[in-house]
Amino acid sequence: MSPRKPRSKFAPLGVLGGLAAIAAFVGVTLADAPRAEAQAAKVESQTRPDFGLLLDPPPRSSRPRSHGRERPWRWRDHYSGWRDDHGRDWEFYWRGRPDDVAAVDCGVEASPYLLQRAVDHLRPGGTLVLRGQGCLGWLDINKPLTIIGDADIGRMDFDAVPPATLRAPDGLPCMTVAAGVRVEIRDVVFESGNAGDAACIVGYDAEIVMRRSAIRYVGDESAVFADGGRFDFRDGLISADTLGAAVVGYGASVQVERAHVTSSSLGFELTPGGAAPSSLSDLVMLAGQRSEGYGPRAIGVLVRGSRELGRVSIAGAVICGYDEGIAVDGSSAQVVNSLVCVARKAAVLYSGDLSIENSLLGAEDVGVAAGAGRARIVNNTFFAVSRVFVVERAQVESYGNRVYSQNACRPGRRPRDGRREQGRYDWFAPQGDGWNCAYDDYGGRDFYDRGESLMGRQYQDYSPEWDGYDRYSQGEGWYEDDNRYHWGSDGHRHR
């Protein structure tokens, strides 16, 4: 029997080390189990066929492959007018930075979409330059812009106005401006020869400023229609052959200065709002040939009322050829240093407030007709009228008015001392409430040059002249019952 070997002192450590190795192997295996499952699922998804993709494949892209490079931006991909010969079908080019200034050379064969493309490429506050004549198109503006042409406008001469810079297509406006947008136009001639029911310039709560520009309009609406906002027109001409008004301002501030306006029916139809007043100054406005033919009565300036009481100021204006020179219906108007001539009624107050001062009013029938409201007629000169005032229910304040008229100033007579024998009358020049007849020179030649001469009328002196009235006013002679002046050989004196 062999002797037993002594137990090593490291035997317990060997047993423990084996157990630790087994535990570590098991732990590693358990930890790698999720990772292995994920790897197996990934492999399975890559090898399994996608039946949905086979049944509904995605559309193939029409763009050519870039072969790893991004295709550069080119005009031929973004501009429809590009031609393969590197030309352009219209004269369309930029000046300065692309979004700051756009210049358009108008040609006979220019596309009607050319102008709108130029507008769309401009940044807000940019400038559109129109060169030459005959641009065809409709400008639809929704951002602040400045439009500059090269037309040379003569203020008082319609015949000298150059051809149109921009012509509107038939039945479409020349320009429309969106709300809150300011557009400034200089040296541009707009023309709408067959507008139909479309106005030429249309603005809704917009600000339209025109300098040294002209508008020629033939249609059924107004040449300018401003609904709210502001329309500022200076040093230009407006010709409107229409049954509507040349300029319509509904709740808008209309400011016209140093302008010449010709219209067939209505000159200005203004409905002022309470925010900003309207003003017409240094204005020449003449009625066209259609005013006495058919359609509504012709009115030079019609001021309508609204919920907000507005005011229109007219200063230094010449208004000739209309049935009613100035008409106020439910609003307020102030007229100063103006001339109304070749009218049937110089001014009519239907209702509201009308003030006329230091003006010259000429009419075939009535000087001022006041139906209702308040009228203030002070220091004016009436000529050629048959009746100075016609007042119904209105309150009229008048004084200092002089009248030169053969009809209104026919001498009247009254019996002297209550006796009616022949030659026993006191003759006198008629007078009314706030007006007196005058027989001196009223400067009719100067007024004729300002107004009636522009209408093609011959000069006529409206000062009342009666046979022998100058001698009768000095106490010499008398008038018979048939209003004939008699100067006796005995030097009979009526006083």
Task: Write the topology of this structure.
Blueprint: H1 11-47, H2 51-55, H3 75-78, E1 92-95, E2 101-105, H4 114-121, E3 126-131, E4 135-136, E5 139-141, E6 145-148, E7 166-167, E8 175-177, E9 182-186, E10 189-192, E11 201-211, E12 214-218, E13 224-241, E14 245-250, E15 253-263, E16 266-271, E17 278-287, E18 299-304, E19 311-315, E20 318-320, E21 324-336, E22 339-357, E23 360-370, E24 374-378, E25 381-383, E26 387-391, E27 395-399, E28 401-404, E29 412-415, E30 425-428, E31 431-432, E32 435-437, H5 444-450, H6 469-472, E33 478-479, E34 485-486
Provide the low-confidence segments as ranges. Answer: 79-97, 418-423, 489-495
Arithmetic mean pLDDT: 78
End-to-end Cα distance, whole Å, is 194 Å
Estimate the global geometry from the Cα principal axes: elongated
Helix percent band: 10-25%
Please count the helical segments.
6
- Sheet of most strands: 30 strands, mixed
Molecular structure report:
This protein starts with 10 loop residues before the first helix and ends in a 9-residue tail after the last strand. Strand 31 and strand 32 (435-437) form a beta hairpin. The strands form 3 sheets. The protein has a 30-stranded mixed sheet that branches. It has a two-stranded antiparallel ribbon with strand order 29-30. A two-stranded antiparallel ribbon has the order 33-34. Helices cover 13% and strands 41% of the residues. It is built from 6 helices and 34 strands. The protein is mostly beta strands and 495 residues long.
